[in-house]
Write a structure and sequence with these properties.
Blueprint (H helix, E strand, L loop, with lengths): L4 E3 L24 E3 L6 H21 L6 H12 L6 E6 L1 H4 L12 E9 L13 E3 L5 H8 L3 E3 L6 H4 L3 H9 L4 E9 L2 E10 L8 H38 L10 E8 L6 E9 L5 E11 L1 H19 L4 H19 L14 E9 L4 E7 L5 E3 L5 E3 L18 E4 L5 E5 L11 H12 L6 H12 L8 E8 L7 E6 L5 H15 L6 H18 L4 E7 L2 E8 L19 H8 L2 E7 L2 E9 L2
Antiparallel strand pairs: 1-2, 3-4, 3-8, 4-5, 6-7, 7-8, 9-18, 10-11, 11-12, 12-13, 13-16, 14-15, 14-17, 17-18, 19-20, 20-21, 21-23, 22-23
Helix pairs in contact: 1-2, 1-7, 2-7, 7-8, 8-9, 10-11, 12-13, 13-14
């Protein structure tokens, strides 16, 4: 039967009735008039409406997430059973990783990522996760090679399809599958994979009209899959960058036992970071920070700030001075980067919070300061939990406000818990409720840091957090009196020989006779310089930690400088000898003067 379809005019005359179809609906609503009276017109109108509804649902339901696998599953869910009885989506692993796919063709290994079937019983085709290599004669391989859709109305006559696995596919035919459309998933000129539509329960085979509908459905899904692939690539790049900038392994220090966790956000990688930095005098610095925003810009900024903190720690700055320098750096980053890319996401204004703590295992004192960061928690050995009432300060980058510190004395075995705001605050929970929940979880006796981390994350975080989270738990240790020796020395050159003897005796008691000669020379040189050039009381201290530490303190704020003495100079060689005999040496300033320290590796 010949169907006559003619375009309608721009609009019927005002005196003429609007043409209607058999079901009473306007036949000219789409700009076309189906001539009523021809056989099958009502059925065609119903089919056309169903296809439009299917395309509309596909546009709404496909691409709801930026996940490649989930997008493929949505394509299968939309089309079964309304269009096909069985749908399979195959993609290369490179697309799943977010990479640019290579040229696809016959023999290319594809991963089956989504399946949807009408029947509940197990199907006899490849399962999700299986690796499929289509032989060149199959419709799927031809589809990938030619980049054109392939229609196989009668699969029993498709020898190329059966050649993939004759034994298995004969069972598939026996199960009732009889017709196939395979379409390449192409977006932006790139082939991303292939989707196969099968019919089994419906007796009617696929036709040319079905082929065009399958192409449009697959085209929409391909765009969504490509968007998800690109997001996956950017997310993985940012995550790789951030993980490369975070600490790896455990730092070499014995002041605290640490455990930490970092969880990236569901929406994207952020700028949370943490650090454990060994300092001179057996001390350790604990740092947790949070850069505003997500993506590569936040991760790169986090790396810059973390590097800056390491450099400032190498100068042995007091905590409040370190945050002041960090605040100035963030402000300069703002002024220097605001022009770069005004329309680029995550660029321009840099904002960050930071919490910085220094723990001394000899005095058991911990000095803390913060810049707009959540309060740290201290878990006492008896299990009681207290949030440290640190003075409030604005986030980094605002400038103009001094940073204040407080000093705590921590009992041995106390746990210091530092974290970012994503742990205790989200859209469904305010920070006060999060802190109360954290206090409840932390209360406990004798729990090691690793178990504390697991308990906190299990109780406070969903499977996929909305913001990235950094958590650092440090249990304090003490450097006992049997590993510390110190002497107060008068400003008299005669005490130099006595200090050498005292050092030798102490090293013998520690069974470190191999270091006696070098340590005696180091102590002699540093004590002599302090008596000759400095003012105030002089103190000599030895610490036996992971290294042998020798410290000489005085009341002067001037620091010695390593230089190369000329052959005619009478002095200037002592500090050079000290540098040759030690692994590290340096100066740190105190409220009353300075300390010259050295470290020698233990035998």
């Amino acid at each position: 039967t010949t169907r006559t379809v003619v375009p309608t005019p721009a609009g019927p005359p005002s005196h003429a009735p609007t043409p209607t179809g058999p079901d009473g609906e306007s036949a000219g609503a789409e700009g076309w008039l189906l001539l009523v009276g021809e056989p099958g017109v009502g059925r065609l109108a119903v089919l056309a409406r169903r296809r439009l509804e299917l395309l509309h649902d596909a546009s709404v339901r496909i691409g709801t997430t930026l996940d490649v696998t989930r997008t493929a599953e949505e394509l299968a869910e939309v089309t079964v059973p309304r269009f096909a009885d069985f749908v399979a989506v195959d993609l290369p692993d490179s697309v799943l990783r977010g990479e640019e796919p290579e040229a696809l063709g016959g023999g290319t290994a594809l991963r089956r990522v989504a399946i949807r079937a009408v029947r509940k019983e197990p199907h006899k085709l490849y399962d999700v996760g299986d690796l499929v290599e289509y032989v060149p004669s199959t419709p799927q391989a031809r589809c990938l090679e030619t980049r054109r859709s392939v229609l196989e109305p009668v699969l029993a006559d498709a020898g190329g399809w059966i050649a993939q696995d004759p034994a298995r596919l004969e069972r598939v035919l026996a199960a009732g599958i009889h017709s196939l459309i395979t379409v390449p998933l192409r977006a932006r000129g790139t082939t991303l994979g292939v989707v196969s539509f099968y019919r089994s329960l419906r007796p009617a085979a696929f036709e040319d009209d079905d082929l065009s509908l399958a192409q449009e459905l697959s085209g929409r899904a391909a765009i969504c899959i490509d968007n998800a692939r690109r997001y996956t690539r950017e997310h993985n790049t940012a995550l790789t960058l951030q993980r490369s900038l975070l600490p790896r392994g455990r730092s070499e220090q014995s002041a605290v036992e640490v455990a930490y966790r970092y969880l990236p956000a569901q929406a994207g990688v952020g700028g949370d970071w943490f650090d454990v930095i060994p300092l001179s005098g057996a001390r350790v610095a604990l740092v947790v920070g949070d850069v505003v925003g997500h993506g590569l810009h936040a991760a790169a900024t986090m790396g810059r700030l973390r590097t800056a903190v390491h450099n400032f720690c190498a100068l042995d700055m007091p905590p409040e001075d370190l945050l002041t320098h960090l605040d100035d750096l963030v402000g300069r980053l703002d002024r220097g980067e605001g022009w770069a890319a005004e329309n680029t996401p995550d660029s321009g204004i840099v904002g960050a919070t930071c919490l910085y703590a220094v723990y001394d295992p000899v005095s058991r004192r911990c000095t803390l300061t913060r810049a707009g960061h959540p309060l740290p928690a201290v878990v006492a050995p008896d299990g009681t939990v207290e949030f440290v009432d640190l003075p409030s300060a604005p986030p980094l980058g605002l400038g103009g406000m001094p940073f204040e510190t407080i000093e705590l004395e921590l009992a041995e075995g106390s746990q210091l818990v530092l974290y970012t705001d994503g742990l205790v605050e989200d859209r469904h929970r305010d920070i006060d409720a999060g802190l109360d929940q954290l206090r409840t979880v932390l209360a406990g006796v004798g729990r090691p840091p690793e178990e504390t981390c697991e308990a906190v994350l299990d109780a406070l975080l969903p499977t996929r957090p909305g913001d990235d989270v950094a958590l650092l738990v440090a249990r304090t240790h003490t450097l006992g009196a049997d590993r510390v020796a110190q002497w107060d020395l008068p400003s008299d050159p005669a005490v130099v020989s006595r200090s050498r003897a005292a050092v030798t005796d102490r090293l013998a008691a520690w069974d470190l006779d191999d270091l006696a000669f070098s340590t005696e020379l180091i102590a002699s040189e540093l004590v002599t310089n302090a008596i000759r050039h400095a003012v105030g009381p002089v103190q000599l201290r030895l610490l036996r930690d992971r290294a042998l530490i020798c410290e000489v303190s005085d009341g002067s704020s001037t620091s010695p400088r390593l230089r190369r003495a000329r052959s005619t100079d009478e002095g200037g060689r002592g500090l050079f000898l000290v540098a040759q005999l030690t692994e590290r040496w340096g100066t740190r300033y105190t409220p009353n003067g300075k300390i010259i320290w050295t470290e020698q590796p233990l035998p």
